[in-house]
Amino acid sequence: MKQSRRLVDSLVAEKFSRIGQLEIVSSEKGFVLCHRDDAGRTDLKNYEIDDALEVAKFDDARSYRPLKTAPNLRHGWKIFARDLLQVKKVIDAIYPGRIAVLHAFKSGQLTTTSLRETLNRQSGMYRVAAKISDEQIDVLVGDFCRSDGGCLRTILWKRDASGKTASSKLPPEKFDPAVDQYLSAKRPRSATAATESIPLLCQEACNLLVAACRDAVKGESAAPSAP
Length: 227
What we know:
Structural class: alpha/beta
Strand order of the largest sheet: 4-5-3-2-1-7
Helix content: 25-40%
Distance between the termini: 30 Å
Order of helices and strands: HEEEEHEHHHHEEEH
Number of helices: 7
Largest sheet: 6 strands, mixed
């Protein structure tokens, strides 16, 4: 906890003011967090620190967001944080576990798990997911994990023990922690430009991708779209 807090301290001190779709703006009395697309707006609704979980729960259409790192964080809100401890609390509510993963990555202690290993350890109704072919993985991951409409995490895991890339359908930038994965329609950014963004790292396939692999094997959907 203290180590993760110190990481947030150092990142903000180094002017890293964005994480995913979050904008962190310093103010005289602390920090203001809001959606990156809403930075500069004066009509945002004020929310409390404890409201951050609710902010992350639904998108603009009030549809439930099962994948918290999907690029569909709702707009129109702002949260004031007195200090960096509260900043971390908001980040953890909106992007659960990502600061801890980043700390492990920066300290050289992060362990990644290949997709095949993740699928092979499934049991029960998800055991069949391990039967997915490489061709199906290539298409499925390329669609499900894409930053534009899929997920804003940077993929660190491989497809299998051989070190094969997760999907040839994804651009090299999807695997680079230095690249800002959020490409706003309002403010397009070059994928290779220097950014002030804290990356959302993905060390292993999420349970939603595992479920999508199962569906692909069972023929319920050839290539499901990410939430």
